[in-house]
Amino acid sequence: MLDFSILKRQNPLFKLINFEVMSDVFSKDKRSEVMSKIRSKNTKPEIIVRKFLFAKGFRFRIHDKKLPGKPDIVLKKFAIVIFINGCFWHGHINNNCRNAKLPKSNAFFWKNKIIGNMQKDERNINLLKELRWNVITIWECQLKGKFLNDTLESLLTSILGNISNTH
Length: 167
Prior knowledge:
Layout: H1 4-10, H2 13-16, E1 21-22, H3 28-36, H4 44-55, E2 73-75, E3 80-85, E4 102-103, H5 107-130, E5 134-139, H6 148-166
Parallel strand pairs: 1-4, 3-5
Antiparallel strand pairs: 2-3
């Protein structure tokens, strides 16, 4: 059994970041099954962005292990990396994203896990910037419903802006 008081002391962000908690609708076994089926690569949001970029004529690499954080999409020619983050796993708490709510069961564990992911993301982004990569982050919720087209157009604008600034 984990002693969550230790986790609180080890991670100073633990007390600072307030996640909204939702009641769990699954049993412990069902929750375990559901969580085990979540993929980390080739997710639906990633595929949406990749298809969009390919249709616009961009060619790219995916999940480059040589780069910090293994970015989802790498536009090497333009020194651009794109992360497509799941709102729950990467702690999208800034915009009251409803996908970023923690389960009520084992909330301390999840809070520490997500904060650890957020710190790792920040570290990887800083390392990439030191290596002179332009970093773009897209959140899962930005690729749903009414936000999809605006997000993809904004992505295209960001890429084209980076291209014109570097050439």
